[in-house]
Design a protein that fits this description.
The protein is built from 15 helices and eleven strands. The protein has about 375 residues and is of the alpha/beta class. A six-stranded mixed β-sheet has the order 2-1-3-10-4-11, sandwiched between helices. It is globular. The chain starts with 11 loop residues before the first helix and ends in a 14-residue tail after the last helix.
Length: about 375
């Protein structure tokens, strides 16, 4: 756990000129007692403490902070001469593996892989350092087979992966309905069929699944194939808010390069502000990045309803992550975890203060 550092701050120019001093300062770490709110973007062309920062994210609209921040250069702008290098992933476990291996330094990722990665490493591999998005998850079904929520018994409903964020949410919802399902096999009163998001539309068309509990844009892709939205997960949460995407960082990178982490967070905060101020432009930007990454843009009938269901926020909504962990325990996928220390929101709150925005809370799960 990084110790609190003093509030001594040097200009980036001085840090570049005196690398030994920069190393000494970063070796002290930083912590919740840091009170230096001075935030100065990297000078044009000037590098921070690394040449390149490696950032991972998914090709999902729920990762639009990263998509838009990358596409518009909003994160790169805050990094100055330090290069923003992105890598995309299809699933949380592979992104966590990349973080552990040092293939990426920072990642945009869902709550369940964040929790699982933290627990498996005994609290030593990552920190959640910010929020990104809320919502954007729906239960969509074949309206010819399923007309009400009670019609799900005996049906085959897809989730993206065993133990992923949507899988845990669906298993918890099933339990609250009083139905029984074996979490590992997915067999029971409802058949939970683990199906990759990119495969789900074809599985739906072939009839091998009757519906899916999935994030956007997969939910809207299924609707474009004739499915119907039966439930928006946000309706199950207080104020219709729940974390769907976090920003995480390797603890080593956080300790060694807080200036870079701060710059990425500043870029993320400014990207979310731009998205919320320019929703149509941001939607088009995210779609342009998806087209670059996948070779195909989302059709209007897919991206328009999908975009409306996602809320972009700097707040990691820590209370909802604690609840999601409880849901995984209840489903039998997780033993009761100690998540103390999973958050370090020090740098995020520093950036928010500098932007004149309110600070956010860690639900007593922050570093001590």
């Amino acid at each position: 756990m990084p110790a609190s550092r003093t509030t001594v701050r040097r200009s980036l120019a001085a840090a570049a000129a005196l690398p030994v001093l920069a190393v000494a300062l970063t070796a002290c770490g930083y912590g919740s007692e840091a009170k230096d709110d001075k935030v100065a973007p990297a000078a044009k062309g000037e590098k921070l403490s690394v040449d390149t920062v490696k950032v991972g994210y998914f090709q999902n609209l729920t990762h639009a902070t990263a998509l838009v921040g990358d596409q518009e250069g909003l994160i790169q702008k805050e990094l100055g001469g330090t290069k923003f290098a992105s890598t995309t992933f299809n699933a949380g476990p592979s992104e966590i593996e990349a973080l552990n291996a040092g293939s990426i330094d920072i990642g945009f990722i869902g709550p369940s892989p964040s929790i699982n990665g933290y627990i498996k490493s005994k609290g030593k591999n990552l920190r959640i350092i910010g929020g990104s998005a809320s919502g954007g998850v729906k239960l969509v079904v074949n309206p010819d087979k399923i007309k009400t929520l009670d019609d799900l018994t005996g049906k085959k409903i897809a989730t993206p992966q065993l133990g992923n964020t949507q899988d845990v949410a669906f298993l918890n919802w099933i339990a609250e309905k009083g139905w029984k399902v074996d979490a590992q096999s997915g067999k029971g009163d409802v058949s939970v069929v683990r199906t990759e998001n990119k495969v789900a539309p074809d599985a739906y068309k072939s009839g091998s699944i009757d519906g899916a509990w999935v994030p956007e844009p997969t939910a809207s892709k299924l609707v474009s194939e004739g499915a119907k939205v039966l439930l928006d997960e946000s309706s199950l949460w207080p104020e219709k808010k729940f974390v769907i995407t976090n920003v995480i960082v390797s603890q080593k990178f956080l300790k060694d390069h807080p200036d870079v982490v701060e710059a990425v967070l500043r870029g993320s905060v400014k990207t979310n502000a731009w998205i919320n101020a320019n929703p149509d432009k941001a939607k088009a930007s995210a779609n342009a990045k998806l087209e670059e990454l996948t070779g195909k843009a989302l059709a209007p009938e897919v991206i328009d309803p999908a975009w409306k269901s996602i809320r972009f926020t700097d707040d990691p909504l820590a209370t909802t992550l604690r609840t999601e962990a409880d849901h995984a325990v209840k489903a039998g996928l997780l033993e009761k975890p100690d998540l103390t220390g999973i958050y370090d929101l020090t740098l995020l709150n520093k950036v928010l203060r500098a932007e004149g925005k309110p600070e956010v809370e860690d639900a007593s799960l922050g570093v001590k």
